[in-house]
Every structure is written in C-alpha cells, then in structure tokens.
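Fold it.
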Amino acid sequence: MLMSGPTGRVAALWGLRCTRVASLVLLLAWTVTGLAPPAVFAQASAASQSQVWLGPDGQPLPFESEDEVLEFLRTAKVVSREPTPDGITRPQQLLLAAEGVQAHAIFRTFERELRRTRRPDGRYYVRWVDHYGGECAAYELDRRLGLGLVPPTVARRLGANDGNVQLWIEGDRDETDPQFRVRSPIAWMKQQWDMDLFDNLILNVDRNARNTLVDKDDRLWLIDHTRAFQPKGELLDPEKLQKVNRVFWDRLQSMSDEELKDVVREHIALDQMVALVERRALLDERVQALVDEHGEAAVFY
C-alpha cells in the first residue's frame, strides 16, 4: 500500500536524495579522474531533447515540429474551459481542437504588482511582479538557449482576457509518491542542474513541487513562471551552481545584451530586461570562478 501524507512525502524526498547522491558519486569519480563524461551521460542528454507530445487519450499528437504546436495553441478552437484544482493564480484547463486534433492546455491570466515590499524569500523589491507574461518569456528564453524545460507557450487573448496558453503535459508523475523512481540518475541530476541554472538566470522566486512536472519518460518540465524575471539584478542561489550545460552556456554567451533582451521583449517590462542582463553578467562571474577553481572539464558537461 502506498504511503500518503507527511510520511509518504518524507519517503519520496529520501528516495530522490538517494538518487542525487548516487549521481554525484558517479560524477565525482569522473571529475577526479579527469576523464570525459561517460557515454551514458551523453546519450541521456541527447535523449532528453526528443519529445513526443501527447493528447488527452495518451496517444502522440500529429505535430511534426514545435512550431506546429505553437500555431495550434494560438489558433485552435476552445472546446471547453475548466478551473484547475490547484494554483492561487486561478488558471484554467482548456480543451483545444483544430482539424480533428484535440489537446489540453492551460490558460493563465493572472497579473499583480506590488511596490516596496519584502517577500517571504527575504528580498526587498522596489517593484515585484506576478504576471502571465513571465511564462511566455520563460518559454522563449528556454527555447533559445536549447534547454527544452518549459512546455510550448504562446500569448493569446480569449474573450476579454489576455493571457498565456501552454501545452498540458499529459500523464505527469508525482514526485512525492514514495514509489517514484527515475531510470537514469545521471540524466535526472543533469536536469536538476539545468533547472538551477535557468532559475538563477530568470530569478524565479517561486520554484516548488507544484510547478515542476515529470513525464512518463522521466523528463522534467518547468511551469508557472509568472513570478520569474523580477526586476532585481541578483542571482537566486549562486551556491547551487556547480555544473554548467555547455549548450546552454555557449548560446547564452553568444548573445549581445540587446539580443538577450529581444528574446523576451514582447512579454516583460524594460526594468525586468535590464535585470536579466545584469544577472547574465553575474552568472559569467560565478561560472568563471568555478572554472578557475576546478577547471573547465569539471564544470561543463
């Protein structure tokens, strides 16, 4: 019988901690010996970038590219709208349909701004934002950087409401289930590192168990970024940054400040874009310090 409540959550967290420890042991051996990453690590990385989108019946959707998914989200007819059971921002689950294809999506419209406030994370904000545009910005930046962590998301107006529409991840698994296991601890740890790096870049102050999803293929998905991109030029938790995705880093480094702003310009305000650029510079300093201390081979994967 499965455990529930606090006991079950503790067991699940212990299982995930053991998974992380096992991954770190393997990676420590790789780092100490100075050898290249094991083949399984590279294979897991490549596999994590492939995706088959699923419909409400659990069967693959007939989209041949992510651009086709985005067009569907922008234009498909809304068959039904239902409130979701969780979330203080009151998102709605949509059933969309176009040319015989049906898919679920989530529609967020929430927007709020506070001035001169100290939040539960201890940070003081001259301006603090909670806005649906952050989800679109997170998706566009994630896609540009090649991480593949945020589900396809578009800006869309439904009726009198502006918001974002994001593809629903069907069949997600509960990380708090004590029976939760992943097939590849190395691939799982890599996704955790990617999440930590991304959250520092976008200053996502609201990452918790409710806004991470795990699909049937152990792929991690990040959702609910309405509180990301705060207009504050500091990193979320730089000490968590120990390993860096080379693809992510090279793409981030290749963009000028204006190009970086252009990726998110349609969805967030100017002060949020300026803070994003400032955080990129702080990430440069953090990663360079890691390389100086440990060497590139130990930092990048």
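The chain has one domain: 5-299.
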